[in-house]
Amino acid sequence: MFVKGIEIATNYTRPIRSILRNYGSNEVLPGCSTCIIINDQGWLLTCKHVTEGLIKPADVINNKYAQFKADFAGLPTMSANKKRKAIAMLEQKYGYSKSNPCTIQIKNSFDNVVDSFTSINVIECSYADLALVKFEGFNQLFCNSFPVFKDNSTDLKQGLSLCRLGFPYPEFTNFQYNSITDDIEWTTTGNPNSPLFPIDGIITRHVAENGQITGLELSTPGLKGQSGGPLFDKQGVICGLQSSTVSLPLGSDQVNREIMIDGKKKKVSNYPFLHLGRCVHVDVIKKFLDEQGIKYQRG
C-alpha cells in the first residue's frame, strides 16, 4: 500500500546518528533519531526533544568534560589518599558521580545531508514538539527532492491508513572510545548505516489542546529513533511528524495465571499495554514553518 509513499519519503528522510558516553564508563552508546530535509536552503525539520536532548547540549556537555579533564590533569603530586579526596571534590564541582553517572560526551553525525558546514542554527517551536535545524556554509546539499505537506487536512479522519518512516534501530558501528585521548570518535571502519524502517497504522484519535487539533494518534507505536520522521499517505504527502508514543493499559492483566509451558505447569503474570504513536499534525507544522518564513511545498 505504501510502496510509492516510502520511495518518495526516502528521498528527503535522513538519520541523525549520535554516540554518547557516561561518566565512569568507556562504553560508547549509539542512538538514532530522524529528520527531513525541507528545502534546498539546508533547512531540516525534526522534533524539539531531539534538539534539546542531543544537538544543542552537545557542545556544552563536551566542553564541560574537557575542562574537567584539564583540572584533573592539573592536580599536583600528592599521596593516594589526598588524591582520592581531590578527585572527589573535583567530581562534586562538576556534578559527576560514578554511582549516578551522567552523560559527559555527545557526538552527532548528520549523514547524507550536506558536504560540510561551518555552523548549525536551531529554532525550536514554543507550542509543539518541532524544531528547525539550518546548516550554514555548505557547498552541496545531498537532496534534490523535497517533501510536500498536505494542504487540505480535512480528510485526515479516523480509520485512515498512514505510514511513518525513520531509523529506530542504530545498527551503525563506525565509532570507538579512544583511550589515548579519552574521547569518543567516529571511525572509517565498521558499519556506517542504519536501515530505514516504516510502520503503518490507522488514525485512532485526534489530539487536541485548548480546543485546537494539534496531533494525530496512530494505532501502532512510533518506534524509538523514529522521532522527527515523516507521517505520510500513499502518495508520500506529509500529514504529520512522529513525536512520541503513549502506552495505555488494556485492563486484561493476568496475575499468577497457571499455564502449560513445554509440558510443565508454570505461573506467569502479564500486564499488557496498547502502544499508540503520537504525531504532530501537519497544520501545526505548516504554521510553524510559515512563522519562520521557511520555504516549503504544499499539495
Task: Write structural notes for this entry.
This protein has a single domain (3-298), classed as Thrombin, subunit H (Beta Barrel), CATH 2.40.10.120. It is 19% helix and 40% strand. It contains five helices and 18 strands. The strands form five sheets. It has a six-stranded antiparallel sheet with strand order 4-1-2-3-6-5. The protein has a six-stranded antiparallel beta barrel with strand order 8-11-12-17-14-13. Strands 7-18 form a two-stranded parallel ribbon. Helix 3 packs antiparallel against helix 4. The longest helix has 17 residues, at 57-73.
Helices and strands in order, then pairings?
Blueprint: H1 3-10, E1 13-22, E2 29-37, E3 43-46, H2 48-55, H3 57-73, H4 80-94, E4 103-110, E5 119-124, E6 131-136, E7 148-149, E8 161-166, E9 175-178, E10 183-186, E11 197-209, E12 212-218, E13 230-232, E14 238-249, E15 254-261, E16 264-270, E17 273-281, H5 282-291, E18 297-298
Parallel strand pairs: 7-18
Antiparallel strand pairs: 1-2, 1-4, 2-3, 3-6, 5-6, 8-11, 8-13, 9-10, 11-12, 12-17, 13-14, 14-17, 15-16
